[in-house]
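Forwarding the complex inputs:
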Amino acid sequence: MSLLTPNPGLIFWMLVVFLLVVFILAKFAWKPIINGLKERENEIQGALDLAEKTRAEMAQLKADNQKMIAEANAIRDSILKEAKEASDKTIAASKEKAALEGQRMIDAARETIRSEQELAVKKIRTEVATLSIDIAEKVLNRELKDKAAQQALVAELASSASLN
Amino acid sequence: MYTSLQQFFTTAFLAAAILFAAPSYADQPEEQHEHPVQEHINAAEHEIEQNLEKHEEEFNIGQMIMHHIADSHEWEFTHGVVLPLPVILYSDDRGLEIFSSSNFHNEHHSYNGYHLVHGDSETIVPEDASREIIDISITKNVASMILSAIILILIFTSIGSAYKKNKGKAPKGFQSAMEVVILFIRDDVVKPNVGPNYEKYLPYLLTLFFFILVNNILGLLPGAANVTGNIAVTMTLAVITFIIVHWNANKHYYKHLVSPTGVPGALLPVMIPVEIVGVFMKPFSLMVRLFANMTAGHIILLSLFGLIFIFQSFMIAPVISLFALFLNLIEIMVAFIQAFIFTLLSSMYIGSAIEEHSHADHGH
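Prediction (whole assembly, two chains):
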């Protein structure tokens, strides 16, 4: 029965040794071990979270890029369209302007021609008058001698001077 | 070698005979008529010794086994290789006395007024029966316990420093080997059973597991002490768990003892004593389970080896050795299982005492 009878001396030493082991291990072994394990677990979890976050960000970024490319394409298309429209408009305007200018120039030329013509006619008229006066003068000078000849001459002159 | 073993078991037989001669001596040292009994023991001891010389072949397997699993004041690794351990005695009149147990190696097993009584376990009794002594000797079990404590401290402080040194790096070598076990205890034993506040109890439960494990395994070595198979050791462990459980228990736990939920009022006179007995049965079962498992393992192994000496034949030895090898493997498994179960049950007892009951739980 001594097997089932606890020995007080052994209980005493057991308490001393075991509590000492608990104390020493808790302070110098379990604390750094548990902290180290926890830190590593946190690190791994953090790294996984970061990877997940990065992946989400990448997906977001990709989607954004896609969107931006689509937007840029749309903008480019609209700019091209606008430019085309603008150029078309400019060309049309230029054409119109050129046509107008041409017309104006033609009109001006026509006006100039007319005024020149008028001037020329006026000048001719003056010339004609002067000529007529000269002729008349000559005729008068000659015809002062010969009446019949003078009349013939006037008729002749008049017929030759049919102008216009 | 054979004769030396015989001498060894002769000594064991002698020890057994003394026990039979004085079965109640150790329990009643204060009684006045003890002195003549003491002389009677001495006389019986000598008589037996002489008888043994005549019948050297006699072998008492029961006493051999008891001698091996019991505590001792010296550490006998094998026959003739003995490490004497310090004997520490305290008595009111003489104060503290410390001397080597080798002083008892004489004809009367006595020294300085003390007598070493061999039995199932050795006891030191004063020759003057009126004196009372407290024996706090470093016995074989205490020495083995201190050895395992040193092993534990060396192993785990070095692992602890490895965690500081290898901070932010992968564990390597022995550190990663032990990490698996530590994580198993933390994640599969302590965390699910103790609950969310497990971290406070983790150092104790980890130490408990590794202390029991190392002592179990050391106990399997030839010539080693049977520390965890000693009821004083398992009792101390169970009482520490008991104290931790009841120191930290919340009011639900104590309330549950006096008014178990879902029990009709008429049954309370039956249930309350059952609950209170249950409180003490838990540490008692912890104590007995570990003690009985480890002691039983040692007894089986020693019985197998004892068969060789009973048959007195070398022919039986290989068969017995095979059996013993098989049982040794089982004992290694048992060493792990018992350490695991003690830790698991301690966690469960702590967990059930600190568990927070939400109100929704009541009434089922």
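Chain A has one domain: 28-160.
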